Every structure is written in structure tokens, then in C-alpha cells.
Amino acid sequence: MEKTDILQEITPLEEHDFMYVADRHKAGYDYPLHRHDLFEMNFVEHGAGCERIVGDSVETIGEYDLALITSPNLEHQWGQGECQSEDIHEITIQFFLDFRHSKFFDTNTMRSIKQMMIRAERGLAFPIEAIMTVYPRLMRISQIKEGFYSMVELFYILYELAKFDDARELASSSFARVQPNTESRRVAKVKDYITSHYIEEIRLEQMSSMVSMSPTAFSRFFKLRTGKTLAEYIVDIRLGHAARKLVDTNEPVSQICFSCGFNTLTNFNRLFKKRKGCSPTEFREKYAKTKVIV
Fold it and tell me: Looking at domain 7-169, which of 2.130.10.10, 2.60.120.280, 3.40.630.30, 2.40.50.90 is its CATH number?
């Protein structure tokens, strides 16, 4: 099947550069859906009504928005949506940190930042309290002329943001093609099985037996560790794969429905609209409108 081509942005960083900061005021958005190799932190002020797309997450933002994306090539876009502001303030910071392989990020001091960066592989949206905490530093980071001090300022921002556990992951793990993060071996074992067998029927009794727990105890345990019931988690994984196929292929919606483990098209459409805010066809059309051939 033909794949959807999305703009591959060429970032301005040279080989030995650490980060790039763009601070701008504009009357609207016109940059298409895109991806790039670098990590990105994007702040928007006076953007109520703008539309934020990160992977298969499509949301309308409020007056302030701050998102962090640490997965190279996860497509994203801030679009005009219903925004009426004529002075949208946007600060974009692009950078790269080898947080998975550097021992520096395994130190006690940096561990919270590493955990946040792992979560941000799916895109991470921060609550207003977090945004206001780092707001003064965001306002001045583009004014810092010496690279070392601007780098230190970024670490200040990352450290402060890492304190907020209520930041929300945006794209589904299956869409972003990242492994779900968990500290529990039992939950990890179940998640690995679901990742490999999401097309098949998966029963609670089967999963609880796999980790030597009763169905009732496992249900409580899984919900406590993941914030979702087993059924909700399975649906999210299936929907993530479905969204990926809607973007990357021309397969009919009905074919995608059954190839991702759903039994009926009606149920698939209902669950997709409930979780994504639009029908599968509308989701595909939304991406098609921002499609760029390169």
C-alpha cells in the first residue's frame, strides 16, 4: 500500500551544536505536519483554539501549551484550528540528549529527567502549573547569548518539568512505536504479550494466569500500575496500530478494523471516535490535509 509522506524537516543544528531556540510572534500557523531527528520542546502562548497533533493525538489547546517530544521522527504539528488570536507567541527548542545510553542520566540527580524523557517519546503535554513554573525561564532562554548558559537554562527547565507527575503522554505507544515504560516485571510481561498478540482474542484469565495471580487480584494490580483496566489497555494498543495504518497506508477502514483485532466495524468506529475525538475516516482526512510529498 502507498505510504503517506510527511515533511522531513531539516533542522538548523550543525554536527557539534547542542540546541536551537526560535522565539517568534505570529498571526497564525501554516507549517505542515512534519518530523525531524531532534527532540523538541514547544511552548505556545495566546494560542487558545489552536490544534496540536502529536502522533495519533489530536487536541485543541488552551491559552498556554507546552509539549515535549523526545522520539525522533514522531510526526507533529501545531495548526490554526479555531484560534482567533493575531499574536500567537511560540518558543521552540530543538536539541538532542543521549539519555538512554549515557551514564550521566543514571545518576540520582538526573534520574527524574531521564524518566520524563522516556515518557516524552510519546509526546508529553504539561499542566498549567508546570508551564507557569518554567515560564520565566522560557521567556529569557532565547535572549541568552552564550551557549553554555543557554544549555544550563534548558536543564533548569527540564529539571523543573520533571517534578510534575501529572504531565500527559500524548501518542499511543503502538503508534509512536515505543515500548511502554513500566517498572513491574509482571506488567511488562503482560504488555509484551499484548504487543505481540493484539490481533488475537486476549482474555483476563489468560493474562492473570501468565503472571500467577487470580483474575481479581490481577485486575486491581494492573489498574494500579497502569491507570487503565486490561480491556482499556488492549483497546488503546489496537487503536494505536489502527491509527498508524490509517496514516501510513491506503487500506480500507474495514480491513484495518479486522486486522487490528476488532470484531465489528461498528464497535471499531465507536471506540475510535470515543478515544480520538473523530471517526477513522475523519482522522485519515485530517492527516491527508497536511500531507506533503518530499
Answer: 2.60.120.280
Grid coordinates representing 216 are 481479581
Residue 188: what residue type? A
Alpha-carbon distance of 202 to 207, in angstroms, equals: 8
Residue 140: burial class (beta carbons within 10 Å; 0-12, 13-18, 19+): exposed
How much is the pTM? 0.73
User: Does the fold of domain 176-289 match that of domain 7-169?
Assistant: no
**pLDDT, tens digit, for every residue of 150-187?**
999 999 999 999 999 899 999 988 888 776 665 578 88
Each residue's pLDDT tens digit, 113-139 = 999 999 999 999 999 999 999 999 999
Q: Extract the C-alpha cell encoding 266.
A: 461498528
Residues with Cβ within 8 Å of 268's Cβ and at least 6 positions away in sequence, in order, are 242, 253, 257, 260, 262, 280
Any idea which residue has 507533529 for its cell? 76
Q: Would you kindly state where each structural domain of the chain is located, as residue ranges?
A: 7-169, 176-289
- Give the CA distances from residue 77 to residues 32, 149, 205, 221, in Å, rounded to whole numbers and listed in that order: 6, 29, 41, 36
Residues 76-118: tens digit of each pLDDT: 989 888 899 999 999 999 998 888 888 888 898 899 999 999 9
What fold characterizes domain 176-289?
A: Arc Repressor Mutant, subunit A (1.10.10)
CB 7 within 8 A of CB 69: no
Q: Enumerate residues 6+ apart whose C-beta is below 8 A from 46.
A: 63, 85, 87, 88, 89
Query: pLDDT at position 203, please?
Result: 93
Q: What is the DSSP string of 148-189?
A: HHHHHHHHHHHHHHTT-TTPEE-S-HHHHT-PPP-S-HHHHH
Per-residue pLDDT at 6: 64
Averaged over 135-154, what is the pLDDT? 92
